[in-house]
């Protein structure tokens, strides 16, 4: 889980322009955390709900109509329930005027109350996306993260084995750089890792002998990409004679990252080997494999059919 606290204030800073957010009441609760500790079971955001309250309650036209339709005592009890417990933030959508009593309770309980002209569904979609990425499990891996043949490929290996030189050659062949040295990976769904570049390193690639290169300035905007799903790891290793099994099926195995298995191929480095072509071939073969085609299995089946005939 991220170490950065997610508060009403940080959420406002991130989306106040896109959602036209404005403060209505409760500014003293701006530092109230949206998620506390390691509690991942609490629902973070949704429409007004009192049975399983969200940490962020979004109120639109329909919810306000429901509140206004309650009797006086029920109305008071419902608003008191809304501004109690683990609630972190209330958002009034569709530019609806907040009830006076709601403004009073927000000030008393120091619970932020924000307003937006956007529809409640749109507000929930945007903020759910934001919370998913900010609160998602993260890790930083050593290597160069590239887009090769349209898929995210992480080039790894020990220092000075040639990752940056390989990345530079791939860029000259039309592939794109995402992050050098310390790409960040976020688990955005139970089976997808998304890789991106820290802002301080964006567009830069360090190559021994040349120093730090600005890839965007050298090759244009199409040579870099902001983020990509991680689909394949290519680990550069020192050359050793492969065993018979590797000669036939390759060195494909799984690497577990943030509880997700990612295919990894070990690619031996030796003089005369065109690593850029081999990485392209690995990416193409992985795409075929994901689409259900296994070249080794096809080869075995073909030999068996010939022998049977």
From TrEMBL:
It holds the Pfam family Hpr_kinase_N. The active site is at 142, 163, 181 (proton acceptor), 247. Residues 135-302 form the HPr kinase/phosphorylase C-terminal domain. It catalyses: [HPr protein]-O-phospho-L-serine + phosphate + H(+) = [HPr protein]-L-serine + diphosphate; [HPr protein]-L-serine + ATP = [HPr protein]-O-phospho-L-serine + ADP + H(+). GO terms for biological process: regulation of carbohydrate metabolic process. Residues 268-273 are annotated as: Important for the catalytic mechanism of dephosphorylation. Mg(2+) binds at residues 164, 206. Residues 8-131 form the HPr(Ser) kinase/phosphorylase N-terminal domain. HAMAP family: HPr_kinase (MF_01249). Homohexamer. NCBIfam families: hpr-ser (TIGR00679). Catalyzes the ATP- as well as the pyrophosphate-dependent phosphorylation of a specific serine residue in HPr, a phosphocarrier protein of the phosphoenolpyruvate-dependent sugar phosphotransferase system (PTS). HprK/P also catalyzes the pyrophosphate-producing, inorganic phosphate-dependent dephosphorylation (phosphorolysis) of seryl-phosphorylated HPr (P-Ser-HPr). Both phosphorylation and phosphorolysis are carried out by the same active site and suggest a common mechanism for both reactions. This is HPr kinase/phosphorylase. It comes from Thiohalomonas denitrificans. The lineage of its organism: Bacteria, Pseudomonadati, Pseudomonadota, Gammaproteobacteria, Thiohalomonadales.
